[in-house]
Amino acid sequence: MRRTRSLPLAALLLCAPALAGTVSASAAPKTAPDGPLRILLTNDDGYDAPGIRMLQQRLTDAGYDVTIVAPLTNQSGTGTKMMSGTSVTVKHPEPRVWAVDGTPGDSVSFGLSEVFADRAPDLVVSGTNFGPNVAALATHSGTVGGAVAALERGVPAIAVSTGGLTAPVPGPILNAMRPTDDFAVKLIERLRNRSEDRRLLPEGVGLNVNHPVVGPDGKGTALGVSVTAQDPQPVLEADYTDSGDGTWKVNVDVVSEPARKGGDVEAISADKVSITPISPNWNTGTADFARTAALLGGLRP
Q1: Could you list the pLDDT tens digit for every one of the 301 residues in the chain?
Q2: Which residue of 109, 127, 142, 255 has the fewest CB atoms within a 10 Å radius of its CB?
Q3: What residues does each domain of the chain span?
Q4: What is the largest CA-CA distance in the chain?
Q5: How far is 147 from 167, CA to CA, in rounded Å?
Q6: Could you give the 3-state DSSP secondary structure of residue 125?
Q7: Distance, C-alpha 295 to centroid of its chain
Q8: Contact present, 153 and 119 (Cβ < 8 Å)
Q9: What is the helix (H) or strand (E) element at residue 104, kind and residue range?
């Protein structure tokens, strides 16, 4: 494992803003209506961040019925955390915009329970995030966490992120959000046109989409699209320095491992869009379950 760059934790959280949850539940629409798709748009960078506002405009221009229900403040790196208090402050600063003083999961929960109380949205989109959510970054991402909260309720969900595994540079990433948003619209149209029962995705399946920053200015076109698995590499490694007063200074190193073939890191490193199917639970695959069950066979309390 080779360290390539050391960055402050706060800077890395901006580009690593998670994947966990339980089995999908009930609220999803079984079919998509003939009219415009109703989209709940959330994120983890905050309801007024450039990424979510750019995507709101792009989806609206494409003819979708878009409502923002997103965190009041930056919640990068909060993963799937939600419902940690007995009350939540919610602001409604403008039409079709709700700002929840909580995590992306809290925002989606409030949106599905209150804003869309009459009928669940056809789709939850979480993003566009400033920075990538690949490999272990996805496991701790509030952007992905917002999508997982929707999947738990049975609502189709897509997490959308822009960036590569380098130090985040605002200008190129913001530029790259435009082709990211164009791709998100194209993806949603593909799902709508090809869904068999008019549900956009199979029940319990979401998508984690990562768009690369192509070219020095970020305005380049991605070289293709890959359906990927989540690369198991950690990407980030914390380094602690004792300050001698009971506190420890924390820096986070970006670590480099060979990209797993067929993984999300390999795709964005090749300037391709990565689309990783995700589920709202931590179940292992069948083979891993069988091997683990064999290890535990005969165990008694």
Answers
A1: 333 333 333 333 334 333 233 333 345 454 545 689 999 999 999 999 999 999 999 999 999 999 999 999 999 999 999 988 889 999 999 999 999 999 999 999 999 999 999 999 999 999 999 999 999 999 999 999 999 999 999 999 999 999 998 888 999 999 999 999 999 999 999 999 988 776 899 999 999 999 999 999 999 999 999 999 999 999 999 999 999 999 999 999 888 899 999 999 999 999 999 999 999 998 888 999 999 999 999 999 9
A2: 255
A3: 2-296
A4: 64
A5: 25
A6: strand
A7: 34
A8: no
A9: helix 104-110
Report helix, strand or coil for 292.
helix
Please name the residue that has the structure tokens 């009219």: 35
Number of residues that make up the chain: 301
User: Amino acid letter at 289?
Assistant: F
Cα Rg for the chain, rounded, in angstroms? Answer: 19
How do beta strands 206-211 and 273-278 pair? antiparallel
- Say if residues 253 and 244 touch (Cβ distance below 8 Å): no
Is residue 226 helix, strand or coil?
strand
Indicate the angle between helix axes 50-61 and 170-194, nearest 10 degrees. Answer: 40
Nearest to 278 by CA among 146, 168, 172: 146
Spatial contact of 112 and 83, defined as CB atoms under 8 Å apart: no
Residue at token pair 């979480």: 126
Does residue 128 have a cis peptide bond before it, meaning omega lies within 30 degrees of 0?
yes
Helix (H, G, I), strand (E, B) or coil at 42: strand
| Alpha-carbon distance values, 172 to 70, 168, 258 (Å) | 24, 9, 25
CA proximity to 269, closest of 285, 258, 282, 279 = 258
**Which has the closest alpha carbon to 39: 248, 242, 181, 230?**
181
Report the CATH architecture of 2-296. 3-Layer(aba) Sandwich (3.40)
